[in-house]
Write a structure and sequence with these properties.
The protein is an alpha+beta fold. The protein has three domains: 246 residues, Thrombin, subunit H (Beta Barrel), CATH 2.40.10.120; 94 residues, PDZ domain (Pdz3 Domain), CATH 2.30.42; 99 residues, PDZ domain (Pdz3 Domain). Helices cover 15% and strands 31% of the residues. It is built from eleven helices and 30 strands. The strands form six sheets. Strands 1, 25, 26, 27, 28, 29 and 30 form a seven-stranded mixed beta sheet that branches.
């Protein structure tokens, strides 16, 4: 490492990220806004929040070796609870600029400039109609479906299995999990029985019911291919993967076990053709149920918030922190004055368990914290300085524009050492240019050799080195001093501030 004092900001790389997902209905763009909901009349008037009266059987499905000859009894039991959902988005007047090519000067010569009194033509978006599926979960008319089925719809209708067609009210939507709750004005409806989706295992037989391509209710069979999948780019994902055929129109339909109990809400597929290729995803009913109850009772989704930046453990990070395996999540930064800071959690702690549940990766921790009721105190088992301890934390409500934690797994598994890295002091001008908070102290990276171990580990110009081998850095000269000589194993543990948060890197020069 060496110090270097010269302008370098202009050389920072520009990054672009592109994500895509193929969904079981039409192509949909997901937002990360907070839960969108219309509070019930009881909530608005300050009365007792309505109760969701669900039928729940949490027992695991039978797993004997007997092959079932027919699922007809199960289908007869479940099919009345699965409905077709029809949506209509009304035609709306639009400006010329919203139509590709219509803002051309030649076009405006004939039809006039927008806003001019001589304009003779008006433009309207065509009405949009969609079709999906839903599941009746209470006898008094609550229905679970997907957010993307009813998103932006002006009118929603539900067709029951007995031929009735009812107008549905959208009680609430949560784009972060793709769950939506509908309500129809009816009684004594054929509601489905729910089960405990945490009991579902890979290999269990499941049935998918829905309305593919609008042709009518269809049943397909498969098995649970995996659990805990996160592939669609939503904020909170814990999908059940299945090879039961799911096609456009199945979105919002039921995934049930061999006893006809609701396991999940069918949501998406991965496909190169647009149709089923054996990889479908369903929202676990435990997660969908929590979202539904929050939307119905409070008109919004409340999520827990810790105030930490986290990252997954790599083998080299686990070794640096003297852990036997990679289980757990590393805290890269504890945000000042947040719930984690007030509870005593520190930078460099490794979370092993949260509220009694093992923490496998950052996605799982993020999901479990979000599911914690704000104000509820829960135990967190951590690894610190070679020993385990339990700390009580009390998450608060997730701010509307904040993040629970940003999982960052770019932690470099190999490399060669801090040769080729140039640093400079973090002065006021650099702070302003990089938008570095005042509480961040260290040396700013001005150059990283492309073929260096540091570059392969993920270090970039513009990063701020806050710690070197668990020792805080206050200046560029101190950073250089701390890298002189190195350690016998030729690895360097860095804690850096980058892109709005801090994380750890291991630079390995042993090869």
């Amino acid at each position: 490492m060496k110090t270097r004092m010269h302008p370098w900001i202009q050389r920072l790389p520009r990054l672009a990220m592109i994500g895509a997902a193929l969904l079981a209905a039409s192509t949909v763009a997901f937002t990360v806004a907070s839960g969108d909901a219309t509070p019930s009349s009881e909530s608005k008037q300050g009365g007792t929040p309505p109760k969701v009266d669900l039928a729940v059987n949490p027992a695991p499905p039978p797993r004997d070796t007997t092959i079932q000859a027919s699922f007809a009894p199960v289908v007869k039991k479940v099919s009345p609870s699965v409905v077709r959902v029809f949506t209509t988005t009304k035609s709306k007047q639009a400006s010329v600029s919203e139509f590709p090519g219509f803002d051309h000067p030649l076009f405006r010569r004939f039809f006039g400039e927008e806003g001019q009194g001589n304009r003779q033509y008006r433009f309207y978006t065509p009405p949009q109609r969609g079709v999906g599926s839903g599941v009746i979960v209470t006898r008094d008319g609550y229905i679970l479906t997907n957010n993307h089925v009813v998103e932006n719809a002006d009118e929603v209708k539900v067709a029951l299995n007995d031929g009735r067609e009812l107008t549905a009210k959208v009680i609430g939507k949560d784009p972060k999990t793709d769950v939506a709750v509908l309500k129809v004005d009816a009684r004594d409806l054929p509601n489905i029985e729910l089960t405990d989706s945490d009991q579902i295992e890979t290999g269990d037989i499941v049935l998918a019911l829905g309305n593919p391509f609008g042709i009518g209710q269809t049943v397909t069979m498969g098995m649970v291919s995996a659990t805990g999948r996160a592939t669609l780019g939503l904020d909170y994902e814990d999908f059940i993967q299945t090879d039961a055929a799911i096609n456009p129109g199945n979105s919002g339909g039921a995934l049930v076990d061999v006893q006809g109990r609701l396991v999940g809400i069918n949501t998406a597929i991965l496909s190169r053709s647009g149709g089923n290729q054996g990889i479908g995803f369903a929202i676990p009913i435990n997660l969908a149920r929590e979202i539904m109850e929050s939307l119905v009772r409070y008109g919004k989704v409340t999520r827990g918030y810790l105030g930490v930046m986290i990252q997954d453990l790599t083998p080299t990070l686990a070794k640096e922190f003297k852990l036997d395996d990679r289980k757990g999540v590393l805290i890269g930064e504890v945000l000042p004055n947040g719930p984690a800071a007030k509870s005593g959690l520190k930078d460099g702690d490794v979370v092993l368990e949260y509220n009694g549940k093992p923490v496998i990766d950052s996605r799982r921790l993020k999901l479990e914290v979000a599911r914690t009721r704000p104000g509820e105190t829960v135990p967190v088992k951590i690894w610190r300085d070679g020993d385990t301890r339990v700390i009580k934390v009390t998450p608060k409500e997730l701010p509307g524009s904040g993040e629970l934690a940003r999982g960052d797994t770019t932690a470099g598994d190999s490399g060669e050492r801090l040769k080729g890295v140039a640093v400079s002091d973090l002065d006021r001008q650099v702070r302003q240019e990089l938008n570095v908070p005042d509480h961040v102290q260290g040396a700013v990276v001005t150059d990283v050799a492309p073929d260096s171990a540091a570059a392969r580990a993920g270090l970039q110009p513009g990063d701020v080195i806050m710690e070197i081998n668990r020792t805080r850095v206050k200046s560029a000269d101190e950073a250089v001093r701390l890298t002189e000589g190195g350690r016998e194993d030729r690895t360097t543990l860095l804690r850096i501030w980058s892109k709005g948060g801090s994380r750890y890197l291991v630079v390995d020069e042993s090869e």
